[in-house]
């Protein structure tokens, strides 16, 4: 079977690839391992991530995307070539049409870089679609309806708040506050409070295992291991979910402020629709415990986690690919 269409959720933290008829076939970290000084690519994806904190000095794990956009063109091109070849087959004879997600605030130059990189990586045609639209489609929101819908998509590099109506984005705001920043503030918090240094992967594991947007009487606990900054020796530490909530609360408050800003720039009729239907949460960050309750408390609007929030954007690419001729005439901008 020839693969002629591929959807790519090109995220700062993870890349998810969707193929019509097969579903989600790739979900790997957006990381490349490079050898220094020649910058030769040694590994991509999951294999590269496993090298973080473990590789010798001449092997550097590198994220080619920053805040949702390309930070290194040539490494991104090589990474896309890896994912396209893995999805379509190494010796694919037919170049596939590719739908790729991009942040809502992407510039024309950044958009062109994504398109060119994907074409040089093996795509026949490339269609770029803004992430809030894809997330809304993947969450089951009827984006062509007259009614307004709000979606908060929290990825690895950016958090985007958008109101969608009549097939487009009415108002939106993008923040460089997302999963990777959650990991960093947690690392900083543990270092400051407990004088313990932990790595990026350990911080992510803590976040996924016990992370919560709100403190609770029923605290979850996690035993982690790091480097005691006082003794210089390895040390075990038990951290609880309330500490995680305290560490990430400034970032969540920033996202809540962005939601309020978007409401302030949204027509009253659409605001009324959102008040009735609630806010949809998507992206890997939506998996944070009690996040829906957090937004409901702060904003005063019911909030709901989308089904399989991590895959909403990739699922949205699949919906477009399944109706590509229709969306070519309306939503897509082919460059």
From TrEMBL:
UniProt key word ATP-binding: yes
A Gene Ontology BP annotation from the UniProt entry: regulation of cell shape
CDD domains per UniProt: ASKHA_NBD_MreB-like (cd10225)
GO cellular component terms, semicolon-separated: cytoplasm
Molecular-function GO terms, alphabetical: ATP binding
Keywords, alphabetical: ATP-binding, Cell shape, Cytoplasm, Nucleotide-binding
Binding site for ATP: 12-14, 156-158, 204-207, 284-287
Superkingdom field: Bacteria
Signal peptide: none
Subcellular localization(s) per the UniProt record: Cytoplasm
PANTHER family given in the database record: CELL SHAPE-DETERMINING PROTEIN MREB
Role of this protein: Forms membrane-associated dynamic filaments that are essential for cell shape determination. Acts by regulating cell wall synthesis and cell elongation, and thus cell shape. A feedback loop between cell geometry and MreB localization may maintain elongated cell shape by targeting cell wall growth to regions of negative cell wall curvature.
Family classification: Belongs to the FtsA/MreB family.
Oligomeric form and interacting partners: Forms polymers.
Protein's UniProt name: Cell shape-determining protein MreB
Gene giving rise to this polypeptide: mreB
